[in-house]
Amino acid sequence: MKTIHRVSARVAYQSVCICIIILLSATMPPLALADEELHPQSGPATIQLGDKATLKLPANFAFINAEEAKSVLKKGGSDVDSVLGIVLPATAQGDSNPSFIICSFDDSGYVKDDDAEKLNPVELLKAYKEGTAEQNEVRKDNGIPPIFVGNWAELPHYNKARHHVVWGLEVKDQDDANAKISGINYNTRILGRKGVLSMNLVSSQEKMPASLKDVASILGATSFVKGQSYEDYKPGQDKEAGYSIGGLILGGGAMAAAAKFGVFGALWKWILAAILICKKFLIVIVVAIGGLFSKLFGKKKES
Fold it and tell me: 0.70 cut: is pTM over it?
């Protein structure tokens, strides 16, 4: 039995190391921007988000389809497999640093919500900070500046009626309560029958209040198609994700993999830390993408 656990731990460790290597490659010099234009669809319009959901795009927003969204995200070195599109304010064309929402779907399976009322923000934040501290040692060995988790930008909470999971984290470059917030990782997940729809906001801290109103508007206009909602889940027939709300907040699939390997001891912090690097790089990547939007829209405006 001990041999099995050692093998499982080694497999998990190697998986995390591979993840770290891939993520470290994101620090390479940025790729040259392709000379292309985006063709956002203006609202009001009904947008199909894959075959799982529908977005009734309001009049004051625009939507970039999956193909163009993936092209933009690839320029930043981001994973695009699950991307369904990008939503922007209609004013983005004249904005040098627009806020936007990345829409994606994770077909992880049905996520149980039986722990929603037991979420402990203090413990969850502690887990993030401990995982970050562990990973900063690896970052140091690779010549990469450390990152730190501040406080909750928004406490994790669950809207049971709408099956929305929301949380926001402050990201800092210094481990100091008074240090400047370098970014905010604002996450929204909509639970469905066969997976989770992500509507993740990318915004500067200054624009966050207005951007949160935009998110609320978009969430209110998004729904699963018939037969794909959370209530349509068929026990015993549909796949389960293997984790609940707490696991979703702490990394979703990676946490489920850790549970499968039985390594929630010391190694789970490595797994969580790798996830946190993903979040940090996502912030770096999407800032660059914001600049790309500016260049593309600016080019279109000039023409």
Answer: yes
Q: What's the first-to-final CA gap in the chain, in angstroms? A: 68
Count of the separate structural domains present in the chain: 1
Q: 137-160: buried (b, 16+ CB within 10 Å) or exposed (e) per residue?
A: ebbeeeebebbbbbebbbebebee
CB-CB contact of 66 with 80 (8 Å): no
Q: Is the CB of residue 18 less than 8 Å from the CB of residue 72?
A: no
State which residues form the domain around 111.
Answer: 2-302
If you count them, how many residues does the chain have?
A: 303
Q: Which two tokens stand for residue 119?
A: 């979420």
Q: Model confidence over 50-102: pLDDT tens digits?
A: 999 999 999 999 999 999 888 877 765 556 678 999 999 988 766 767 788 98
Q: Identify the helix (H) or strand (E) that includes residue 5.
A: helix 2-24
Cβ–Cβ under 8 Å, residues 86 and 100: yes
